[in-house]
């Protein structure tokens, strides 16, 4: 299929290849390679909630599809605060700060995702503390 704009991702026959500069251009080579090697490919059908506010999600990246971040009012009304397409990152701040997610995240269309194991993400940050 080709390169996904601004993401450093290349999709070839269903295989996703991540370039070093897609996630952290200055991340040390070994730390980046470990993060990439541990990434889990997943698919989310339209409508699936990836995580709820208050959860502690694993960080991830949207490869394709449309995903939204939203909050729920006290009256139960959902208010969209951001949309993400290919290259959109989610769960990163929560992973770095250790705080629960302030928003819920939902796939609006069928979406392909890369999910990073929390331990691999933490190792990558420890290897390059200036990135945190």
Structural key phrases:
alpha+beta, 4-stranded antiparallel β-sheet
User: For the terminal residues, how far apart are their CA atoms?
Assistant: 33 Å
Q: In percent, how helical is the residue content?
A: 10-25%
Summarize the main sheet. 4 strands, antiparallel
Radius of gyration: 15 Å
Number of domains: 1
Q: Give the overall shape.
A: globular
What is the CATH architecture annotation?
Sandwich
Sheet/helix structural class? alpha+beta
Q: Any idea what the CATH superfamily is called?
A: Jelly Rolls
Order of helices and strands: EEEHHEEEEEEHEEH
What does this structure look like?
There is one protein chain. The protein is α+β, with helices and mostly antiparallel strands and 132 residues long. The protein has one domain: Jelly Rolls, CATH 2.60.120.10. Helix content is 23%, strand content 36%. It is built from four helices and eleven strands. The chain has helices at residues 20-23, 29-38, 92-97, 118-127, and strands spanning 2-4, 9-12, 15-18, 40-44, 49-51, 60-64, 67-72, 78-84, 89-90, 104-107, 111-115. The strands form three sheets. A four-stranded antiparallel sheet has the order 4-11-6-9, with no helix packed on it. Strand 2 and strand 3 form a beta hairpin. Helix 2 (29-38) runs antiparallel to helix 4. The longest helix is centred in the N-terminal third of the chain and has 10 residues, at 29-38. It starts with a strand and ends in a 5-residue tail after the last helix. Mean pLDDT is 77; it is low at 1-28.
